Amino acid sequence: MTLRATLGRHGNGLGVAHLWAVFELGSSIKRPGKLSEKKRWAYPGKKPKTILIVGVTGAQEMAVATALLRPSPEAGTPSPYHVRALTRDPTSRRARELEAMGAELFQGSFYDMNAKQLFMSGCYGAFINTETYTVGEEREIWAAIKLYEIARRTPSMRHWIWSNLDYGSKLGNYDPQYKTEHHDAKGIANDWLKSQPSFLGDKLTWTSLTSSVYMEMQNSPLCDPLNIRPDGTHIFASPIQNGHTPMIALSDLGWWVRYTLNTREKTSGCELQIASDWVSWDYLVQAFQEVTGKKAIFRRLSMDERFACMSGHNRPVASEKKLGDGSTTVRESFSGFWCLWRDDIIKRDFDWIRSTHPNTLSLADWMRQTNYTGIVGPYPLKNTEDGKGRIVHNKAVTSLL
């Protein structure tokens, strides 16, 4: 089921003063087979619901954790949610930032079958964003199904939120030009999820959130200006031609996750197709010039020209794969990605989106809010920050644009 009807906004119903229960802070890092003995929470009168976030130091998950831990805006009370953050490296900068915000760290991987039951234990809900760029399509689909199966067996679990992308191949009538590995992997898993019942009461509800390109990707080699000429003109170059991509601000994505948890009955068994703005590259350039006052142009490129601007596009798109092993390459996957946007294969209902979330950011809003200047950084994606990014500029080519 795809949710398109207008949904009402709900608060958490907490509008009166309560006593806070504050528990001693001990080690908040959990490891497979060894749970920390002490936890900490501050909440008026009752223990908050624990939400597991898988892949927590990625771009989406950092935004989701921030949104869930934020005090309730309607009532000014502490959040009704506690975050359990699954991370491979609890000593990383991003993990420590989450810990400082009050998240509970659990060391492990979404692919660790032996630890899955342990890191879900006691959780009310889960936000699951598996990583195609690490393990590849086949392993991601398998892991998604196994994670769901374990959630169904976990007595405390009530709400499963799948972080989804549009199934590009299916939307494009399985024309191979639209095959995009990271879209198809999530879309296939989402189709499987739709075959499962979605319960209310004391059983497991599922909801999928189908998002898209982050606005924060303006700070990455995918969507940033490929060159800044000596006269200061910023060159936004792409093979998108006259097409569009539904972009989402990460803060909006975090809002949607919290909204979904707050409205379990309305979102049960639904796919919410979300975004913040409908972006063509002409519109991107217009917004950039309006907000920054800097000169910019859109260069329409062919696919060959765009991939000439990238180094290593013959590498596997998944970082754990090996060159020459037959895996989908960066070029193969991102050719499909650009074709989806070029041909406007993916759509959104922005009337429904904005009626549900009236404070949705436009691209210009996001640029103002983040003081975007066209200078790349900080990187939104953890793989890029860690030097494992699959898209790298070929400066010998981009400098000529």
From TrEMBL:
Domain NmrA-like: 49-302
The family this protein is said to belong to: Belongs to the NmrA-type oxidoreductase family.
A GO cellular-component term linked to this record: nucleus
SUPFAM superfamilies xrefs: NAD(P)-binding Rossmann-fold domains
Name this protein carries in UniProt: NmrA-like domain-containing protein
Record keywords, A-Z: NADP
InterPro entries given in the database record: NAD(P)-bd_dom_sf, NmrA-like, NmrA-like_oxidored
Domain of life per record: Eukaryota
Organism, scientific name: Candolleomyces aberdarensis
